[in-house]
Specification:
The complex is a heterodimer of chains A (405) and B (257).
Chain A (H helix, E strand, L loop, with lengths): L1 E5 L11 H4 L14 H20 L4 E4 L13 H9 L6 E5 L10 H13 L4 E4 L5 H7 L4 H20 L4 E4 L4 E5 L13 E5 L3 H10 L2 E4 L5 H17 L9 E9 L3 H19 L4 H4 L7 H6 L14 H6 L3 E4 L1 H15 L3 E5 L7 H22 L25
Parallel strand pairs in A: 1-2, 1-11, 2-3, 3-4, 4-7, 7-8, 8-9, 9-10, 9-11
Antiparallel strand pairs in A: 5-6
Chain B lengths: L1 E7 L4 E9 L3 E5 L10 H7 L3 E5 L16 H14 L6 E5 L1 H12 L7 E4 L19 H8 L6 H10 L2 H18 L7 H4 L7 E6 L8 H9 L4 E5 L6 H4 L1 H13 L1
Helix pairs in contact in B: 1-10, 2-3, 4-5
Classes of the chains: A alpha/beta (405), B alpha/beta (257).
Chain lengths: 405, 257
């Protein structure tokens, strides 16, 4: 079982009455709310947290891409991994990922990812999300109905650019080149592991399973609804004729660890509320532009896609419904093991920092997980399976070391 | 009038069309909200013209949107449509997105059609009068922006229709298709081609259109030489429904001149 440390890098200083005063945390949230002086502190704190996770032995550290929002301040996650590549030594550097339909040409992504793989000595994991509707359609102006075609073409181009040893021509619908010739080439062969973060769309499952990639379900709504999604994915894996190796699957989970179950609420409830009520304050009209989801996916939804149900939920609901796995190390261990086992998941992305949780508390949460939870999961889950989706870095004698400051 | 199923380019596109009447042909191109099948103004126009009112690919019963990538593909589809159905020299009447489309058809092939009527047409962009982002509108916002009198019976009826999940799904499908031609801003180069429009052109605008405000009527007036603008002051974005009689009269008078 692999444990990763995922950072969203939220803006921590939204006003108390944010959700009453502003219609959305994304797309049209005025940038005057962002104080760059506080931002300076926060970015450096967040990078410290990720570096700490590396030192404590997390298997991977994860970052992702979002635009025009206060929910996650990484318009360019590759810049974050570039900072981390030289200050960490063990953890996989996971970008989950780059929204490749947004880049013209997408070869820029192939180049930057190859750079990260080479700088880090092959510790890099390439994530390719379609991207949320807020990011892609509203903030970056992409046509909803053609976004997925553009995404798939960009993916094909990037993989081909990493695996073809000489220049080639590419005549796509969205991209045309006489000379595709990416320098540098990645260290990992045939290319870095590919992880596909998804929100549960039917078409993505089959696409991932057919290509033998890893599927990471990034949900904030706990393991009960996730069970259904993962079942859909495993059915697609069966359809593709592949084995049920748990390392084909990743799952994101908020964790809040304290000395006892009772103390967890006092230590984490405010940050949880900040996350669910401010960071996820997205109105349904931005959550899915018409055409962003295929008609098939829209029809399969029981209610229109929306975050509005979060409005009245409180700490007790978050914990009872498993949005957050909270409590003493023993409680967290058991609940997490049960969820991961039931869903057959080999990679858990823990969210130890969420909402406005402070640096000190985040470090403590991280440490408790690393010492009290991670070893137990590693020991008790999936040792009979080989993880073919984890990076294969250079062995330590071939790894360059950053000079001491 | 009657319904017919139509196939274009050997079944690459199939759609349903309401057609009938007598007189010179008139092609009605509907807006992003979907085909206006059964609307009485079409019957009124059919008293003077042979009306063809097809559903676009990707709207209602129209299939084949996957073969259209942009507004030029869309306009060429309608030139194929006219050729295959042997509709000679039709008047073009286009509403909203359909107005943008009609203007493109007229600009690409000025000799293939007769007179041109643009009703609350999309296709231009004015920085000083930005269009609202109707792709984000809920039914209440849509009705409020579309109608001169949102509280009236037409508004009530529209809100009633939006209560059905099927209708919402249909609306979703229409807007997804419309996005191919209008996302995120419906200025896709018409301004570079609009000088090619040769035919007499009538612009019809609702005086309180909040979806495509009357300033856009003025903008079209400025770029289509010899065009005329009729403003129906008790209409919003749907003058053919809100002031049917005045609308039909204005269009008919112009086309029969």
């Amino acid at each position: 079982m692999k444990s990763h440390w995922f950072h969203l890098m939220p803006y921590k200083d939204l006003p108390e009455d944010f959700k009453d005063r502003y219609p959305s945390v994304w797309v049209d949230v005025p940038s005057e709310l962002y104080d760059p002086i506080k931002g300076h502190e926060i970015y450096n704190e967040y990078l410290d947290e990720l570096e700490y996770a590396d030192r404590l032995g997390f298997d991977g550290i994860c970052v992702n891409e979002h635009h025009s929002n206060a929910y996650g301040l990484m318009p360019s996650p590759n810049i974050m991994l570039a900072c981390l590549a030289r200050r960490t030594t063990q953890a996989a550097l996971v970008v989950l990922g780059n929204s490749i339909a947004l880049y013209n040409p997408p070869l820029r992504v192939a180049e930057e990812m190859a750079m990260l793989d080479v700088i880090s000595g092959g510790r890099f994991v390439a994530g390719f999300p379609v991207g949320s509707s807020m990011d892609t359609n509203f903030a970056y102006g992409q046509t909803p109905a053609t976004l997925r075609d553009k995404y798939r073409e960009a993916h094909e181009l990037i993989i081909k650019s990493w695996t073809t040893p000489e220049p080639f021509a590419f005549n796509g619908k969205f991209n045309q080149f006489r000379y595709v010739n990416v320098w540098p080439r990645p260290i990992q062969k045939p290319h870095p592991p590919v992880w596909i973060p998804g929100g549960g769309s039917v078409e993505t499952w089959d696409w991932v399973a057919e290509r033998d990639y890893m599927y990471a379900f990034l949900s904030y709504f706990g393991y009960q609804p996730a069970k259904e999604t993962m079942k859909g994915y495993w059915d697609a894996v069966d359809r593709a004729g592949r084995d049920r190796n748990p390392y084909r699957a990743g799952y994101l989970q908020l964790v809040a660890i304290a000395d006892s179950d009772a103390k967890a609420e006092a230590e984490y409830a405010e940050a949880a509320s900040y996350f669910y009520h401010r960071c996820l304050h997205v109105p349904s009209y931005f959550a899915a532009a018409p055409g962003y989801m295929t008609l098939k996916s829209v029809k399969s939804l029981k209610v229109p896609f929306s975050f509005e149900f979060l409005k009245n939920l409180k700490w007790k609901d978050f914990v009872d419904q498993g949005f957050i796995i909270a409590g003493s190390p023993a409680t967290v261990r058991e609940r997490l093991r049960e969820a991961l086992k039931e869903m057959n998941v080999g990679h858990v992305m823990t969210l130890c920092q969420f909402g406005n949780l402070g640096c000190e508390q985040t470090m403590r949460n991280t440490e408790l997980y690393a010492k009290e939870v991670m070893p137990y999961l590693k020991e008790n889950l999936w040792n009979e399976w080989e993880d073919r989706w984890y990076p294969k870095p250079l062995d330590s004698q071939h790894r360059a070391k950053a000079a001491a400051l | 009038m009657q319904q017919a199923r139509v196939s274009i380019r050997n079944g690459k596109f199939t759609t349903s069309m309401q057609w009938g009447g007598s007189g010179v042909p008139l092609l009605f191109l509907h807006g992003a909200g979907g085909p206006m099948i059964g609307a009485p103004f079409l019957d009124e126009l059919a008293k003077h013209f042979t009306v063809y009112a097809p559903a676009h690919p990707g709207f209602g019963p129209g299939e084949g949107i996957e073969h259209l990538d942009d507004i030029i593909d869309f306009a060429l589809y309608y030139l194929d449509f006219l050729d295959e159905l042997q509709i000679d020299n039709p008047h073009l009447v286009g509403h909203s997105m359909g107005g943008m489309l009609a203007a493109e058809v007229a600009a690409l092939a000025p000799y293939r059609s007769n007179r041109l009527v643009l009703v609350g047409a999309a296709g231009l962009w004015l920085d000083e009068t930005p269009l609202p982002d109707f792709f984000t509108f809920n039914p209440q916002q849509l009705v409020k922006a579309a109608l001169h009198d949102p509280e009236g019976p037409l508004g009530q009826m529209m809100l009633q229709q939006f209560q059905s999940p099927e209708m919402m799904l249909e609306m979703h499908k229409c807007l997804a298709s419309a996005g191919k031609f209008m996302w995120p801003i419906p200025d896709k180069g018409l301004k570079k081609r609009i000088h090619r429009i040769q035919q007499p052109t009538l612009l019809v605008w609702g005086g309180s259109d909040k979806l495509i405000p009357p300033a856009y009527g003025e903008a079209f007036l400025n770029v289509i030489p010899g065009s005329r603008l009729v403003t129906l002051s008790n209409s919003g974005h749907l003058p053919m429904l809100e002031e049917q009689e005045a609308f039909v009269q204005a269009v008919t008078n112009f086309l029969l001149e």
